[in-house]
Design brief:
The chain is an alpha/beta fold and about 240 residues long. It has one domain: 3-Layer(aba) Sandwich (Rossmann fold), CATH 3.40.50. The chain contains 9 helices and 8 strands. The chain has an 8-stranded mixed sheet, sandwiched between helices. β1, α1 and β2 form a beta-alpha-beta unit. Belongs to the short-chain dehydrogenases/reductases (SDR) family. InterPro entries: CBR1-like, NAD(P)-bd_dom_sf, Sc_DH/Rdtase_CS, SDR_fam. This is SDR family NAD(P)-dependent oxidoreductase. Keywords: NADP, Oxidoreductase.
């Protein structure tokens, strides 16, 4: 009997996280729904169950050391390992204009978008090391690309903010450094593209299904696949 792949998706109670979880569950994976709000997470599990898909709730607040440690303990006791970690949880952060943005606004955004992935990755590393094929996917954004945001033909260049874009640039750097520090892993960042989610008031032209293409692709990458890269559904994204 083939051993199932065990994947944890943070921020999986809605949007990109929930759709990623649904698609992975359809592949027969054991999917763990990481959710800060346990009630919303339970509703997400029930939603997948209504579609005939199996998933498990892991209460997980990426901004809390205690919550993340408890989540890692839960997964360890239930499964003994983790094959795929998808660091998806993120916030848009303050919409204060750049010249009015201060450390508090930056800190609030970074706590989820930067410190969260560091906190979760570190806590789950022992379980990932027990996998024969460990993979980490960082859900970034084209807003974190210096090349993309500097291209006047791209919509990302029209957004002027210190918080969210810089947090995703930081996440991209974390990706390259983790990839170098974990040579036996596949660690990559993905740009979902301008996707209709709560994060942008559902204004994006892409469907959530399209927005999860790169996430699902990188979650399933083989042992000889890329690591330390940045990709969207069409291929590599410039840093």
């Amino acid at each position: 009997m083939t051993e199932t792949t065990i994947a944890l998706v943070t921020g999986a109670n809605k949007g990109l996280g929930l759709t990623s979880a649904r698609r992975l569950a359809r592949s027969g994976w054991t999917v763990l729904i990481g959710a800060r709000d346990a009630e919303r997470g339970a509703k997400a599990v029930a939603e997948l169950a209504a579609d005939g898909l199996s998933a498990e709730l892991v209460a997980l607040d990426v901004t809390s050391d205690e919550s993340v440690a408890a989540a890692a303990d839960q997964v360890g006791r239930a499964h003994g390992r983790l094959d795929v970690l998808i660091n998806n949880a993120g916030v848009i952060g303050s919409r204060v204009p750049p010249l009015e943005t201060g450390p508090d606004e930056m800190r609030a955004c970074y706590e989820t978008n930067v410190f969260g992935p560091v906190r979760v990755t570190r806590a789950f590393l022992p379980l990932l090391r027990r996998s024969a094929r460990p993979r980490i996917v960082m859900v970034s954004s084209g807003m974190g690309s210096l090349a993309v945001t500097g291209d006047r033909d791209r919509v990302e260049s029209t957004v002027i903010s210190l918080t969210y874009p810089s947090s995703k640039s930081a996440l991209n750097m974390l990706t390259t450094q983790y990839a170098k520090a974990l040579p036996g892993f596949r660690v990559n960042a993905v740009d979902p593209g301008y996707t209709a989610t709560d994060l942008n008031g559902n204004s994006g032209p892409q469907t959530v299904e399209e927005g999860t293409d790169a996430i699902v692709q990188l979650a399933a990458v083989g042992p000889d696949g890329p690591t330390g890269g940045f990709f969207d559904r069409s291929g590599p994204v410039p840093w």
